Amino acid sequence: MGDPKGFITIARKEGGYRPVKERIFDFGEVEQTLNQEDRRLQAARCMDCGVPFCHWGCPVGSKIPEWQDSLYKGKYDEAYRILHSTNSFPEITGRVCPAPCEKSCVLNIHEEPVTIRENEAATVETAFEMGLITANPPKIRTGKKVAVIGSGPAGLSAADLLNKAGHTVTVFEKNDAIGGLLRYGIPDFKLAKNVIDRRLALFVDEGIIFRTNTCVGKDISKEQLLEEFDAVILAVGAEQPRDLPVEGRDLKGVYFAMEFLTQQNKLVAGQDIPEEERIQAKGKKVLVIGGGDTGSDCVGTSIRQKAANVLQIEILPKPPEKRENGNPWPYWPNTLRTSSSHLEGCERRWSLSTKRLTGENGEVRQAEIVQVEWSKDQNGRWQMNEVPGTTEIIDVDLVLLSMGFTQPVHAGLLETLGVELDQRGNVKVNKFKQTSVSKIFAAGDAEKGASLVVHAIEAGKQAAAGVDAFLNGMSV
Prior knowledge:
The chain has helices spanning about 5-10, 20-25, 35-45, 55, 65-70, 75-85, 90-95, 100-105, 115-130, 155-165, 180-185, 195-205, 220-230, 255-270, 295-305, 415, 445-450, 455-470; strands spanning about 145-150, 170, 210, 230-235, 240, 255, 285-290, 310-315, 345-350, 350-360, 365-375, 380-385, 390-395, 400, 405, 440. By secondary structure, the chain is of the alpha/beta class. The longest helix is centred in the C-terminal third of the chain and has 19 residues, at about 455-470.
């Protein structure tokens, strides 16, 4: 370890955010960075404990104590190589991962974990600045061809590893740019898109082929796909949003969160969207239904669009500030999470269910909400009940539905390919990520259900290993 007593003598220090009065006027990244000496000291806090629970908590198995030590010693090349050995793009997870590693860090017993996520982002940025990260194409090609459908974190992770193994990889993306959720689902104030483009340029130099504006199953038939490629990976995500089946859902001014976020990301990228098609929060009373990360992103985007006010509601109870007895370290803490967007000016309320939406001239104007209580039935299953006399009417001009995603979209590609689905509607796979169609594999949210970027990266790694074994004639 860098400093045996660092965790005792050095306090946790975060980079923090840009001032609220500055950042709400642009879509630049909100996080600030520490200087190199402060960052080195933060790396020194890693105590190289006997059992590195941070490594256990990280879905991609990052060798955290090892690269923290290299960072402390100023060995950025070594630190980056260790990071990159388990993660195809640590500069992205260093920005958007909720850091389960920090939640399981031994120092988090005292709520002072190592700043692992910030250290990760800083390490990669310094390595790029020093010119240590360059394209490294495979020296030998196997002659095998793999199609990856979907260019989100799972697809890109799988494509990177299969390309490194010498296979020729083509990534198909139905949208006009590569990145999937990273590109159009995460606001620029959390993940600047030049960060994605920088990594994609390396992938292109290393030989990965990207085809945008291509809808597999429509522009390319199943027969063409299976004839041209030796293996296929479905990394299409879980894009079926959970809807709100209430009266007034069809009113103008009610949108899914991804419609809102995707459009804003395209505007930031310089794309022209006709005024009549824009979803605008300016001057409006915005209601965000759903309390997760996507809902938080809707809050931050609405504030930057100059909404009159923003209310975010959640159907579940308000989480506790601290861990409760049934939720011990090192497990993920089921506690209240406050994002940078929440700090910019937003009202948050919990245990509220939306009963109906009403409007005038076809446009939403009010929402009827009611308080709910949660309890367990005789079988131990949670059930929700409305609290009598708590119904209220709130004025709204824009309603954003951010209640999660249920499954991958079945219509089109999945139905065309004929892959078997599981009970939850996800693509059914075996332990090698192989589907019911032998040449077709699946990775990420499409087979796991909506989850974290870092889980998708790991799923891409597993699918790549399964495909590589399949192409090499091994039984999977």
